[in-house]
Amino acid sequence: MGVANLTEPEALGDQANSPDAAPLPANLPESLPQLEAPPAGSPRGYIRLAVMDGKGIKHRKCALDECKFPLYNYKNGRFCETHLDLRNKCGIIPCGLPVRYPGALTCNSQSHIDWHKQYENRFSRLSFPGVQRVIRRQQIAQAEEGSTQPRGPTLRVELHGLGDTPGDQVVHTFKAKSIHCLQTVQWACGVPIGWGKCYRSESASQVLCILNNIWANHPDFRPSYIAYDNACDLLRYIATQNATDIWLTTTKFIVDAWHYIGHKATDVVCRTRCNPAPMDGSQPDLVLTQEDSNGQVHQTRAFNTETAEQLNSWLNGFESQLRQMSDVNYDFFVHVLMLIYAEMTEKKIHAKDMELTDEFWDRVNGLDVDA
Q1: Is residue 42 packed enough to be buried (19+ CB in 10 Å), middle (13-18) or exposed (0-12)?
Q2: Is-contact 58 331, C-beta < 8 A?
Q3: Where are the beta strands (DSSP E) in the chain?
Q4: What pLDDT score was predicted for residue 159?
Q5: Alpha-helix residue ranges (DSSP H) falling in 242-300
Q6: Do the beta carbons of residue 297 and residue 47 sit within 8 Å?
Q7: Strand pairing class (297-301; 287-291)
Q8: Residues 6+ positions from 129 with CB-CB distance below 8 Å
Q9: Which residues share a beta bridge with 225?
Q10: What are the helix (H) ranges across 188-306?
C-alpha cells in the first residue's frame, strides 16, 4: 500500500484540452454501476482487482514471424512441421528460390550469400569479449561526436543493406524465432489467476484474447478492476473494436501505480479513466483514508498494483531453463510454477492472518449471519 499522490483528473488543466490530447471514444461509459458507492449506511460489499503484466521469458518457435507453431526439430531446426518445406528455399524473404545445395540457407545469388555471411559474422560468433569491444568502440564514437547525454552500455549491431532494403529491415529465416513474452494475470493479493503467451508483440489484441480465454467459462466472475501498465491503450482498443464488448460494462481498467507516473498527461483516456488512485472521490474502493501512528490522516492506495511485477521477479530464477524448453514442456512448467506460487502466497496470507472469514463469505452469499 502506498501514499495516493497521483494526478487528479481535474488537475490536468489545459493539457487535457490541448490539440495533442487524444479524444475519448464516444462509447466509453461515464461510470460503471457496480463500482459506484452504495447509499449511506449500506454495506460496501467487496470488489476484486486483478493485476496483469508481461515478462520476457520465451521459448523458440517457427522462423516465420506470423507463425505461432512450435519447432519440428528443437535441436537445430528453424521451422514448424507445417513450414518444413521452406528448408529447401532461400532464407531471404521473399526470394523463394531453391537453396544452392542441401543444408544451405541461401540461393545462388551472390548478394544473398554475402548478406548471410555478414549476418553470421555479426551474430553467430559473438563472444563476451567481442561484445565488450563493440560497446567500447560505440562509446568512443559517441565521445568523438561530442554527445553530453550519459548513456549506459549498448550493443547496436548494424548490418549492411540488401539492395534498397536497410540491413535491419531484411526479413529472413536464418534462425528460429521466439515468442514475445509470457503474460501473467493474478489477484491483487498475489495469487495467480491465469497466463498466456504473446507471440509477435504485447499487442492489445493478444492481451484481450488472453483475458477472454481466462474468463470464457466464468463471465460473471470478471474482476471489478484490472491493473495493467498499458491499460489505457487496451481500453481504447476494446472501445474502438467492439462498442458492445462486455468488458466495457463489467471492469474498470487502470494503469498500475508505477507506470502511471510516466504516461502522457495529454492522454485523456489514461488520465480520466485509468487513474489508479483518483483523488476526487470518484473511486472510493481504490483510495483509503487512514490515520498513521503519528495521528496524521492521509490517503493511501487500497491495492498493491505491483503484484505481477513481484511474480515476474520470482520467475526470473527459472528463465534459463524455460528458454531451452519445447512449447509443451514450457507450458507445463509455467503452469506448475503458477500452482507453486499460489501455494506460497496462500501460506503467507494464512501466516499473517489475512484470510477472508466464513462470516465474510456468508455476507457475500446473502446469508443472515446475525440470525
Answers
A1: exposed
A2: no
A3: 49-55, 60-61, 92-93, 171-172, 177-178, 181-187, 192-198, 225-228, 252-254, 287-291, 297-301
A4: 78
A5: 247-250, 257-260, 268-273
A6: no
A7: antiparallel
A8: none
A9: 49, 252
A10: 204-214, 231-241, 247-250, 257-260, 268-273
Cell of residue 308, nine digits: 505481477
Report how many helices (DSSP H) and strands (DSSP E) the chain contains, helices first: 11, 11
pLDDT in tens, 162-217: 888 888 889 999 999 999 999 999 998 889 999 999 998 899 999 999 999 999 98
Is the separation of the CB atoms in 51 and 253 below 8 Å? no
Grid cell at residue 19? 490539440
DSSP 142-191: HHHTT--S------------BTTB-GGG-EE-SS-EE-SEEEEEEETTS-
How many whole angstroms separate alpha carbon 305 and alpha carbon 229? 10
Q: For 126-152, what is each residue's pLDDT tens digit?
A: 566 666 676 777 777 767 666 555 555
- Collapse the DSSP code of 303 into the 3-class scheme (helix H, G, I; strand E, B; otherwise coil) and give the result: coil
Which residue type is seen at 363? R
> What is d(CA 71, CA 83) in angstroms, rounded to the nearest whole number?
10
Strand partners, 198: 181
CA gap 274, 228 in Å, rounded: 9
CA 138, CA 126: separation in Å to the nearest integer? 16
Residue 31 has pLDDT above 90, yes or no: no
Reported as a single tens digit per residue, the pLDDT across 49-74 is: 899 999 999 999 999 988 999 999 98
C-alpha grid cell for residue 330? 514450457
For the stretch 114-123, contacts whose Cβ atoms lie closer than 8 Å and that sit 24 or more positions apart, written own/partner, are 115/159, 115/160, 115/162, 115/170, 116/91, 116/92, 116/172, 116/174, 118/159, 118/160, 119/159, 119/172, 119/174, 122/157, 122/159, 123/157
* Amino acid in position 53: D
| Calpha distance 23→273 (Å, rounded) | 12
Closest CA to 78 of 178, 160, 151: 178
Mean of per-residue pLDDT scores for the chain? 81
Cβ 333 vs Cβ 325: under 8 Å: yes
